[in-house]
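Priority: medium. Attachment 1 of 2:
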């Protein structure tokens, strides 16, 4: 579990086009980094669409949204097109970044897998808010509300 105000772990992961992105790319910006189990599953689709709908307001506050799962570029591309996702999706095939953020671990029935988590990272690269056990419905609105409190 990451402590609030701890330095966000660095990452370099490919997007749906294969281009690499790292935490450093978001220096001097707010970053909404969220980890989700799988493209095209009901909860993940609801969560992605909620963040999609809040993205313009988040961008207006100086934030960017980035999603991370183990899905490959082809899966991400299809998911983006089908649901008009307006932010980047990254692939963490070996779950190393998920491990670093505490977003990989024991799930129901003792199986290991991706834990649905979201982090608000400030422009200095520090985690200021962690959402564990995210409720997908309305998640974008909750993140927007909380980000406004940090920017005041």
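Attachment 2 of 2:
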């Amino acid at each position: 579990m990451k402590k609030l105000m701890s330095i966000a772990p660095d990452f370099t992961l490919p997007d749906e086009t294969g281009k690499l992105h790292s935490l450093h790319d978001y220096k001097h910006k707010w970053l909404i980094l969220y980890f989700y189990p799988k493209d095209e599953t009901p909860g993940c689709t609801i969560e992605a669409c909620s963040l999609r709908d809040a993205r313009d307001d988040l961008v207006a506050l100086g934030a960017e949204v980035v999603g991370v799962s183990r899905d490959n570029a082809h899966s991400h591309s299809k998911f983006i097109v089908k649901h008009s996702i307006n932010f980047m999706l990254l692939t963490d095939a070996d779950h190393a970044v998920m491990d670093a953020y505490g977003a990989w671990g024991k799930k129901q029935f003792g199986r290991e897998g991706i834990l649905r988590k979201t982090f608000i990272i400030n422009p200095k690269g520090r985690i200021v808010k962690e959402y564990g056990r995210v409720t997908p419905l309305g998640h974008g609105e909750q993140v927007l509300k909380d980000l406004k409190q940090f920017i005041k």
